[in-house]
Every structure is written in C-alpha cells, then in structure tokens.
Specification:
The protein is α+β, with helices and mostly antiparallel strands. The protein is built from 10 helices and 32 strands. α8 packs antiparallel against α9. It is globular, with a radius of gyration of 35 Å. The N terminus is likely disordered.
Length: 521
C-alpha cells in the first residue's frame, strides 16, 4: 500500500512538473548524434537546409535534421569548425573558419578549398569572419587578417589588432563601411572600411590567458573582470551596440562613445559570452547559466529544458526558430514560446512557500551587520562629535598643614603634642571644544575605508546568497524531472537541496528554514 501511495505521489509531482514546463520552450535535439557543435548556418530560402560546424568538420542536412552527411573533414591537429558564413546575395558560396585555416566552397559545400593558412597554430585557428564588399576580414587567435582580392592574398593588420585574439565581428549590410570587432584587448570600430581603427571599449586580456598570474594579481579590479567576449548591433537602430563581458552586458546608444551596464535582473550569472539579435529586435544572450532573452528590462531563461551545460553558439531561422549549438549536439526550440500569453513563471512555482530572494538578501545583510544604514549612522555621529565638549577633571590633595596644641599640663596624655591635621582637597573641571571638526573630522577617513570594505563584503555575501538560492531551485527542478527508478540520483539531489538550505541558513542565521516552516504552518 505504501509503495502504491509513493508511486501516486511521484506521479502527481511529475504531472505538476510537466504542466510547469509546458509554457517553456521545448528543445529538440536534431543533430542525430553529431556532438560538439560549435556553429550553425541556416539557409534563408529554405530552413530545412542547415549547416553545422563541429570538432569533426562540417555537416549538412536538407530535411531539417532528419539525416546528416559530412561535407568537410579537416586534416592536421585541429579539426574544429568555429564559424560558418554565407556570401550576401549568393547562398551557395560558403566560408568555414576552422582550426586549420579558412575554407571556401562555391557549390553549397560539395567541394572545398583552403584559402588561408596561418604561420603558426594561433594564426591558423580561425574563429571569426566578416565578408564585406571591400574585403574579407578574418579573425584568428593570432590576430586580424584582411584580404582585398577574395582570399588570393592576405595581410596582417598592424598594431594591437594584429596580435590580439579576435572573438567576432559585427556590422549591418546597409552600412558595410562601419565594422566593429571584439577581441582580447577590447572592442574596436572602423568607419572608413578598415583604414583606421578606434578602440571604443577597453578590456584587460588576463581573462583570455594573455598575461601571467603575477600581472593578474597586480592589475586593477575593474580591468581584470571586464574582458569583452562578443559584440552585436541592434538591426533596427544602428547607433545601439551591445557587448557581452565577464561583468554583464553593456549597451551604447551612440556607437561606442559611452557605455552603460544593462540590467542583470533574471540573469543568474553576469558572465555572458554570446549575444544575438533577431529581426524583431529581440536580444538573446548566452551565459554560464544558459540561454536568456531580454524583455521589459529583465532577462528570462529559455534553457530549462535544454539538456546541455555548454552552449557555444545561437542561431535563428526566418521563422524565429532558435538553435543552440552545444557539446551534446544541435538543439532547436519552437518560436511559440516567445510571446506565449498567460505564460507561467516556473521559478515562482518552485519558490512557493519559501521566502523571496529579496527577503533572504535583506536577512543575510542584517545577520552579517553590513547594512548601508550603519555607515550613514556613523557619519552622523562623527558630525555630532564636534558639538560635544571634551571633559577633563582634576583632583589634588594637600597634607602639609600640622597643628600644635599647648595645654600647660605635664600630666595629661597627648598634651604638648604635635598632631597631623585633616587633608586639604582641591578639584577642577575643564570643558573644551575643537570647532574645526564641524568642517572636517578625521574620523571620516576611517569611515570611508570601512565603508569600502563593507560594500565589498556585502557584495560577496549577496553573490553567495544569489548562487545558493537559485542553485537550490534548479536542483529541485532537476529532481522532479527524474524517473521513478533513479533512486540514487534522487537521493543525491535531495541531499544537495538540504546542503544548499543549510548554507542559506548559515548566511541568514536560520532565517531561511524558519520562514519555510512558518509559511507551511
């Protein structure tokens, strides 16, 4: 009987989970066992024709993933295909940027020829490509190369760009003279067809293994964690640029002159590595936590159903079908999820009966005594210090006076004797003010130092709370999606949930568990 009840309970949980997932995008693996997909290219005129770049070469399907065939296999040590691109106006011409040079096909991938090979392994590892009317721009791990004669000859760009690891290019077909690129040294742009380059966003290259650990430790904190990963342009507004960095997504409204950090609300990890704009102006991002879409100044995760942890690239077809290139293959999501009415918030479902993240954050701040009000109170008290006087009290004693009594009798005791008199006490009180402290108090310097340390400590605590809180929700989802037979995995997930709960209690003084208990009763 108990076994039957257990099966019924798990069945109900599975049904609830299925209903919760119903409003999320359903990802379907369409690469039929082809794994380690790094790039995807979808034909505009026929979305059934798809090319993918993998660590084994280029594969092609003409039936939307029903069958695949290998159309390019690479020799040498690095077989990875990092990027695929069509030529504008002729979709039969395809370029493949690979770990062993740049390859070219004029007949939809039936025959290939290599048109670029670097002098070393870094230059040979091609990762980005821009095919423009005035030339071909090729980004490699060893720098930027340009060809003005369709790949027959190449020259290396001088300066920083000739030695920096290039990540990607961004441009709009209607403005080909304006080209942007992201690299290990930041973001650059040219407005004169590549004659002159201007850096529009500086980034320290330590995150890309370009410098030693010693230099990393001595470098500025902001520089160390602001490495650029990807750049893109809003297709409906050429003035707006977006940068994926290790500190979040940056936005510029004036083509790179000034930058501001985009809201990271809903983005579980600020470290973003890929950005993609749809023709409708929707912004997608890939972070360490998954795939997200930006709407109404917040990020919404789209990868709950995506059974892969490493996402290398995103692609869109003309029907706004979303493709994710992962280590487990190529996945496709239907476009119906984007504007689905009445969509259920799955995170809210798994947070029912538990304190909200804002409540947990406030309690963690309170428990650690790092509230911003504490510094404000210190500053006010330091200002009032000059109004209060310094009080000093003095006390003295004089025992030098002795009195002599002469009675005239020689028979009485103590007559004609010298006696010690009573103590003479002196005291005083002094009040003093230092009115200069009304203008500046030296304690302010100490408060400023403590304030910076407190802000750093508070940020560390909040980051830890956020990671633990949302990791707990994710593990609960994973636990509900397990099969009944997976008892060992279910036990491990349950153990992980309790471990995360204990960690949150440690940061909040037991508040998290007590609130769960209170809301359940």
């Amino acid at each position: 009987m108990k076994k039957i009840m257990a099966i019924l309970v798990i069945g109900v949980l599975s049904l609830l989970t299925e209903n919760a997932w119903a409003s999320e995008p359903k990802w379907q693996e369409i690469s039929r066992g082809v794994v380690n997909v790094k790039a995807v290219l979808i034909a505009e005129e026929d979305v059934k024709v798809i090319y993918i770049g993998t660590d084994k070469g280029v594969f092609k399907t003409e039936d939307a993933g029903g069958t695949w065939r290998n159309i390019l296999s690479l020799g040498g040590g690095n077989h990875a295909v990092n990027y695929l691109a069509f030529v504008s106006g002729n979709k039969k011409i395809i370029y493949a940027a690979t770990g062993n040079g740049l390859f070219f096909s004029a007949n939809a991938g039936e025959r290939w020829g290599r048109i670029f090979k670097g002098k070393n392994s870094f230059e040979n590892d091609c990762v980005a490509l821009a095919i423009l009317p005035y030339g071909i721009y090729l980004g490699t791990q060893g720098g930027l190369f340009v060809s003005k004669d369709n790949g027959r000859s190449w020259h290396k760009e001088p300066g920083k760009l000739g030695n920096s690891h290039i990540f990607n290019f961004a441009y709009l077909p209607k403005e080909p003279d304006c080209l942007y690129l992201a690299c290990a040294d930041g973001a650059f742009k040219t407005v004169d067809s590549g004659k002159n380059w201007e850096r529009i966003f500086a980034a320290h290259p330590v995150e890309n293994d370009a410098e030693s650990t010693e230099e990393n430790e001595e470098s500025d904190e902001e520089k160390r964690y602001s490495a650029v990963r990807y750049i893109t342009i809003d297709p409906h507004n050429p003035d707006e640029l977006y940068l994926a960095t290790n500190r979040g997504v940056y936005k510029s409204k004036d083509r790179g002159t000034a930058w501001e950090v985009l809201s990271d609300y809903g983005l579980l990890s600020r470290a973003t590595q890929f950005l993609l704009f749809s023709d409708k102006g929707e912004l997608y991002a890939v972070s360490k936590s998954g795939v997200f879409i930006y709407k109404q100044e917040r990020w919404r995760e789209l990868s709950f159903n995506l059974s892969s942890r490493y996402i290398n690239f995103l692609g869109l077809d003309k029907n706004t079908g979303l493709y994710a290139c992962t280590e487990k293959g190529l996945f496709r999501a239907s476009p119906d999820y984007i504007d689905a009415p009445g969509r259920q918030d799955i995170v809210a479902e798994y947070s029912k009966g538990e304190p909200a993240i804002q409540e947990v954050q406030q309690q963690a701040i309170k428990y650690a005594e790092v509230e911003p009000e504490k510094i404000i109170s210190w500053r006010k008290q330091a200002q009032k210090k000059a109004i209060l006087p310094q009080v000093s009290l003095g006390l003295g004693r004089d025992t030098a006076d002795l009195w002599h009594w002469e009675s005239g009798s020689a028979t009485k005791e103590c007559d004609d004797a010298l006696r010690r008199g009573r103590d003479s006490l002196d005291w005083d009180v002094t009040l003093s003010w230092d009115l200069s402290e009304l203008i500046w108090n030296n304690d302010q310097t100490s408060i400023d130092t403590r304030s910076r340390l407190m802000v750093q400590l508070r940020d560390d605590i909040l980051d830890e709370v956020n990671k633990l809180y949302f990791e707990r929700i994710r593990v609960k989802m994973e636990m509900d999606s397990l099969q009944i037979e997976d008892r060992k995995k279910r036990f491990e997930k349950e153990l992980r949930v309790r471990e995360l709960t204990a960690s949150l209690d440690a940061l909040t003084g037991g508040y998290f568990s007590s609130q769960i208990q209170r809301k359940r009763t």
